[in-house]
Amino acid sequence: MLTPLILRLEQRDRLSDEEKRVLENAVSRVRVVAADEDVVREGDRPAESCLLLEGFAARYKILSNGRRQITAIHVSGDFVDLHSFLLKTMDHGVVALTPCRIAVVSHAALEKITDEHPHLTRLLWLMTLIDGAIHREWLTAMGRLSATAHMAHLICELFLRLSVVGRSEEDTIRLPLTQAELGDTLGLSTVHVNRVLQELRKDGLIRWQGDALTILDWERLKQVGNFTSTYLNFQYEQR
Predict the structure, then answer these.
(1) Average pLDDT of the segment spanning 145-155
(2) N- to C-terminal Cα distance for the chain?
(3) What percent of the residues of the chain are helix, what percent strand, and what percent coil, each to the nearest 5?
(4) Which of 136, 163, 195 marks a domain boundary?
């Protein structure tokens, strides 16, 4: 059941069979969340954390004028609110962008892991550190890249993150995000999002039909997006 998380962790370090069993046994139940339904709300004090097994989810903040800013996109294998184990009160919400299957892990189970399995604890800590690295990269992209470069950067990132957890087919990923959701992510209007996507298509960098996004020229797309994957920490080494 936890194959996406196992793949994500084993990209960075070795997991023992015991550690895999510990993770499997930590799951108390599986939730199915409908698209546009909150997984966790701002202000909640959850007693459990949610691991995304299937689908896409997003962290978000709502401004006083009702506008939404998406601050992270989550894919299979991501703990969407692991940090709530220690922070306690959520300062943002997490919403399902598509129908999602979610494994629920109680904070009591996480506390037991931290007490009894130091190596596994470090790997889960690494996941929260990578979340922080992604936030820094997104902040830099939003502040310093053009809209076209920012879109190219996001596509490169999502392609690699989905590939690691077995959610790509050669040069194609399934990315069922609306232009409004992309706009909330990049801080653009839907009209501007459409214009940017048309530019990437016209330049022969991507093909996006339905929810199937195909990268036609990876090297040029990386160049346009000023993209390097260092912040995703894919290197395999002892932690």
Answers:
(1) 98
(2) 24
(3) 45, 25, 30
(4) 136
